[in-house]
Amino acid sequence: DTAVSQTPKYLVTQMGNDKSIKCEQNLGHDTMYWYKQDSKKFLKIMFSYNNKELIINETVPNRFSPKSPDKAHLNLHINSLELGDSAVYFCASSTSTVTYEQYFGPGTRLTVT
Amino acid sequence: AQSVAQPEDQVNVAEGNPLTVKCTYSVSGNPYLFWYVQYPNRGLQFLLKYITGDNLVKGSYGFEAEFNKSQTSFHLKKPSALVSDSALYFCAVIPGGDDKIIFGKGTRLHILP
Asked: What does residue A88 show for φ and ψ, rounded to 5 degrees?
């Protein structure tokens, strides 16, 4: 009965490739997020969707494109991967845009070689 | 700029002793405050939050935090540390009137047996 799940857990790929990370939540939450955690463990929000609508879009390269087919899913597609994209990406969800409590997925460790 | 500071990169505490992990913030309005914990190779887990009301909030695993408006602090505390408390702890803030959560850089808590 996983609350927020991400696939894959590990992703190793070469520079220039295009890859996607999937996120699903079964909590009935309206809002979902993508975070990037760098090698120094610094956590920064990338995107937020509420009921399939983009509400937060931080300064993220255009190569990153979130897609929300329904409110239970928020996928992250990355084009033309670069070495600097190597990080752990976390998906999260919350009941509303007023983010009282966020529930995080287990993370996807992306390594670009 | 709105910010959250966790002044200590690492805190070492002997098992059984009280622990404190510090967090201060500089944001507009009346903030919502949170603590999250990240165990190795895991996603973040919600510990506790302050929205309004009693300045002392109690959370999971015996942790508590005190909101101090005059000092703009929200330190995490536990009366008696356990080895299993060893993890990375993140303070997070939502500024008043905003919907974006800002994370501190994290503090690694190491409980010595």
From this structure: -105, 130
A106 lies within 8 A of chain B by CB: yes
pLDDT, one tens digit per residue, over B69-91 is 999 999 999 999 999 999 999 99
Closest to A91 measured CA to CA, from A33, A38, A48: A33
Q: Report the residue of B42, B91, B100 to disrupt the A interface, i.e. the one with the largest count of A CBs within 10 Å.
A: B100
Q: Are strands B32-38 and B87-94 parallel, antiparallel or unpaired?
A: antiparallel
Burial B8-46 (b: 16+ CB within 10 A, else e): beebebeeeeebebbbbbebeeebbbbbbbbeeeebbeb
For residue A45, list its beta bridge partners: A35
pLDDT digits (tens, 9 = 90+) for A23-63: 999 999 999 999 998 887 788 889 888 888 888 777 789 99
Q: How far apart are CA B105 and CA A50, in angstroms?
A: 26
B60-94 burial string, b = 16+ CB within 10 Å, else e? eeebbbbbeeeebbbbbebeebeeebbbbbbbbbb
Count of other CB atoms within 10 angstroms of residue A77: 14
